[in-house]
Amino acid sequence: MIDADGYFGARVAEHYDDPSSHAFQADVIASTVDFLAELAGGGRALELAVGTGRIALPLAQRGVPVHGIELSRAMLARLRAKPGGEAIAVTIGDMAATTVDTKAQGPFPLVYLVYNTIMNLTTQEAQVACFRNAAEQLAPGGSFVVEVMIPELRKLPAGQNIVHFHTSPTKWAYTVYDVTTQAAPCHYITVTPDGRGEHREVPFRYVWPAELDLMAQLAGLRLRERWEGWTRKPFAQDSAQHVSVWEKPIS
Ligand SMILES: C[S@@+](CC[C@H](N)C(=O)[O-])C[C@H]1O[C@@H](n2cnc3c(N)ncnc32)[C@H](O)[C@@H]1O
Question: Which residues form a coiled coil (predicted)?
Fold first, then answer.
């Protein structure tokens, strides 16, 4: 299941762009792009884990030149096949370690990592390295934006460690929480059209807002804004996710 493309190989990439899923709704994409375009302030943006260009393509259409870093060639092939996909420069590599050559055009005023993808880095060390890598490629005064869910530990009754997040006649999906390591692998069980069952497990590491702030601090960044979502609803006790913006100080 895992190869050089990580957990987003050809089979996953083929079904990634799902127009019925929440992340692909026009209003979700529009509010994300509005938020990011404003922060780019007329400059360039770097998307860590750019995927199939769900956000990079409409952001580029808004006039923000986007450079991507991406591990999976299969996901990149999907981006390339879309109108405008050839125009997005992408560097293949691990977002925790890969840098883009900024000699000619200078560092980025905006680096962003959306759709819970910080959790695809499954150790604290890798998540810290990702913050350092983002900070290194940011211009002074620039913004690093992360969109990620709040860990769903409050949904766990005492003694249990599983949260279901999808149940239908042909698909079940659940997260198994380990509070000792912050591992939170997701399991997907699907009944195929010929009646067989398939199981797929994808590892994740959950991370709290305060821990992200500490990672930012280690990388020399400081929190500027935290919202519940892209429309700038205030972040609150019951928020299920957050969009956080850390800035690289000017001096
Ligand atoms: C949930 S998708 C998000 C794609 C895109 N950002 C979006 O919002 O639709 C996660 C992406 O992260 C990529 N990815 C996972 N781990 C990565 C890593 N360490 N470095 C670079 N890309 C990674 C996967 O290949 C996949 O394309």
Answer: none
* Fold exhibited by the domain 153-202: N-terminal domain of TfIIb (2.20.25)
**Beta sheet of 241-247, edge-to-edge order:** 89-92, 66-70, 45-48, 108-113, 138-149, 241-247, 222-227
From the CB of 95, is ligand 1 less than 6 Å away? yes
What distance in Å separates the CA atoms of residue 206 and residue 221, rounded to the nearest whole number?
Answer: 21
Q: Where in the chain is the domain with CATH 3.40.50.150?
A: 10-151+207-247
- Encode pLDDT of 151-193 as tens digits: 999 999 999 999 999 999 999 999 999 999 999 999 999 999 9
Q: Is there an atom of ligand 1 within 6 Å of 13 CB? A: no
Q: What's the pLDDT score for residue 103?
A: 87
Question: Of ligand 1's atoms, which has the minimum distance to the CA of residue 75?
Answer: 27
CB of 158 closer than 8 Å to CB of 242: no
Q: What is the DSSP letter of 6?
A: B
State residue 1's pLDDT score. Answer: 58
What percentage of the chain has pLDDT greater than the value 90?
Answer: 96
* Mutation probe of ligand 1 site: the residue of 2, 3, 8, 98 with most atoms within 8 A of C-beta: 8
Q: Is domain 10-151+207-247 classified as CATH 3.40.50.720? A: no
